[in-house]
Structures are given as structure tokens and as C-alpha cells.
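Justification of resources, computational component.

The compute hours requested in this renewal are based largely on the per-chain cost of generating structure records like the one below. Each record pairs the submitted sequence with a full C-alpha cell output. That output is archived, and it is also reused by downstream analysis tasks.
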Amino acid sequence: MPQISISEAYKYCSKIALSHYENFPVGSILIPKKLRKHFFALYAFMRTADDFADLPSRTIEARLSLLTDWRKQLDNVLAGEKTENPIFLALGNTILECKLPTQPFYKLLEAFEFDAKGEVKFETFDDLRWYTARSAEPVGELVLALFGYKEEERIRLSNDICSGLQVLNFIQDIREDFINNRYYYPQEDCRKFRLTGGSDGLKSVLLNKISLFELERVEFLLNNGASLAESVRGRLRYELRAVILAARKMISKIRKVDGDTYSQRPKLSRREHIVILLQSMFFSVDIRWSKHKLR
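The structure output for this chain reads:
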């Protein structure tokens, strides 16, 4: 069987990316055309591994076996071995062409392996940050590297933004996560707010209060990382501004419903997306956006 071409491999990745890109910016018009194929390759690698970790019809052992094979294929492509897998063919070319760091890929695999075990529960917020440092922060580091930014300080700022965004996503998806036995709110916080299990507890005002508390953590992290947007140039600056503005708009929406994301998942309208896009083109983001303080 003849090996497919690099262009065919990228086309394969683009089909995966454009059909299900969620929060990853492969669909953003702010991403330069010359970089789009590289975003496709990164997303295809992550999306496929994420699917392996979340296969409901497979046992834990089977999911981990798929991820072990995925890790081996990554090892092989980084060692310069040939591959017939279009995702790794494209990814290997992207890593070489863009001189990407390899550690973030292995951190991502750690997060997927954690997910595959189905024991999503964290005692402290530091424990949750251990997870976001593997599931979210590597994505930001790789995006920065695609644009040529590899400085430690920028990566640190990116890490705060990415972790903040992921915790925000956990707040938005609280109903679905609880139904599927995924508990992203730290247990120490649940005890602090006297939140207990069961449907009555989940639908109570206690859950809303803890959601608002975690929202303050999101805001704190976003404020810490906001200066990153103004430290970069070109379209990445606009993309980062848009990401931060969208997150802040979502924070406002959640506060308006007093933290009740269990009853209805808040989301941005098409009009709000357009306004945010226009704002990102002409206005810098405020470093400190809110007077709320983390308790």
C-alpha cells in the first residue's frame, strides 16, 4: 500500500478538525492561512486521543491500550520513523516545520490516560491544576509555538489563560459532567459550601454558590494571563483578545443567573461573537477586568 502524501494527510486532519473543533481555534478566521494545516494536525492528534479516552463501549483497559498505542506512534514519528497514519504523518511534518516542543504532547497524553480511567475527582484546587496543566496548558504552549513564541514568561501567562478557560468550561458543563460522574469541583470546596451528592444537592442554591466561587478563580487566572494578548503581534493578538473577551462575557452571563449553570448551559449568541470579534480588532483588553476578589 503506497504511503499517502503530506497534502493528503493534512486534508484528512482538516476533515476531523472542521467537523468537531469545539473550543480549539481551528475554525477561527483570525488564524493565518499558512498555519491552518498545522492547527488541523494538532487538533486531529488531540481529538482522536480524546475519543479513545472517552469510548463508553470500551473497558478501561481497552481505552488505555488504545492510548498506549497512540503514545508509541508519537514516539515513532518523533524518532523519524515512517508512518502510514495520516494524523502522525501530518503531525510529524508540523513538529519539524514549526520546530514545536514535544513535551506538551506527552502532557496531553497523561491527561487523556487520566480521563480513560474514569476517576474524575480532585481533592484540592492544586490537584485540579495538575489536571489542567496537562489537559489545557499544553494546547496554549503549542499554539504560541506555531506563531514562533517560546519564551517562558509568555508560556506562563498562556498557562493561566488556558487553565482559566478550562475551569470556565467545567462550570458551563456542570450538569453533563455530574450526570456522567465527572466531578471537577474540588472536594474541599464542596465541603466548604456543604454540597452533598444526590439530585437534590445538585439542583440546590449551594451548587450555584460554589459555581460562583470557582468563577472567581477563573477570573483571577484570566486577569493574570491577560497581558499576553498585548505582548504578541498580528493575528495572534486579535485571537487572544477575542478569547479573553469571550470568556469575560461568559463570566458576566453566569453571574447574571447567579451561578445556575445546572438548569441551562449559558452560551454566546452569534451577535455576541461578532461584537467580540470586532472589539478584538480595535481595542486592547483590560489587564484587571473586575473588582471581584478571590476569597
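The radius of gyration is 20 Å. Confidence is low (pLDDT under 50) at residues 291-295.
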